[in-house]
């Protein structure tokens, strides 16, 4: 059974030293936004971080989605489906490239941890439906 503790948590963390990066280099994602937009992102993060620990974890997501009347599993699945609009599957090489080159970049070690917990199928696709189920329910689908 895969565990959330084995997965990289970068997607669920507040950016470290965000203020320094915002004011500094323009080669990061924050350079694409105006200061007012960045402030809105920070406010949204604060709203979602229900327990105020600096991380958006599974409990925080459940509380946020419940407050919005949304199904967390369906919402996260729809985010993955943006990269798989035809439902043909997500190639693990493509996911690796995206995670290592966009936003809060994953390290090779974090990628290895993710694929150890969720190995690609024989076609090289990531079973993102199972990954989403584990994120939202904490256990693998049968």
TrEMBL record:
Keywords: Calcium, Metal-binding, Repeat. GO terms for molecular function: calcium ion binding. Coiled coil: none annotated. Residues 36-71 form the EF-hand domain. PROSITE patterns: EF_HAND_1, EF_HAND_2. InterPro entries: EF-hand-dom_pair (IPR011992), EF_Hand_1_Ca_BS (IPR018247), EF_hand_dom (IPR002048), Myosin_RLC (IPR050403). Pfam families: EF-hand_7 (PF13499). Gene3D superfamilies: EF-hand. Myosin is a hexamer of 2 heavy chains and 4 light chains. This is EF-hand domain-containing protein. It comes from Limosa lapponica baueri.
């Amino acid at each position: 059974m895969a565990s959330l503790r084995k997965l990289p948590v970068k997607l669920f963390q507040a950016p470290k030293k965000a203020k320094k990066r915002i004011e500094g280099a323009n080669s990061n994602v924050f350079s694409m936004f105006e200061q007012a937009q960045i402030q809105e992102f920070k406010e949204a993060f604060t709203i979602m971080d229900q327990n105020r620990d600096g991380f958006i974890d599974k409990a925080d997501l459940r509380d946020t989605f419940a407050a919005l009347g949304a199904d967390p599993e369906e919402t996260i699945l729809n985010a993955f489906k943006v990269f798989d609009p035809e439902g043909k599957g997500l190639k693990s090489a493509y996911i690796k490239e995206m995670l290592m080159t966009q936003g809060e970049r994953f390290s090779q070690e974090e990628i290895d941890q993710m694929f150890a917990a969720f190995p690609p199928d024989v076609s090289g696709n990531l079973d993102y439906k199972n990954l989403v189920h584990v994120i939202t329910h904490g256990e693998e689908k049968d």
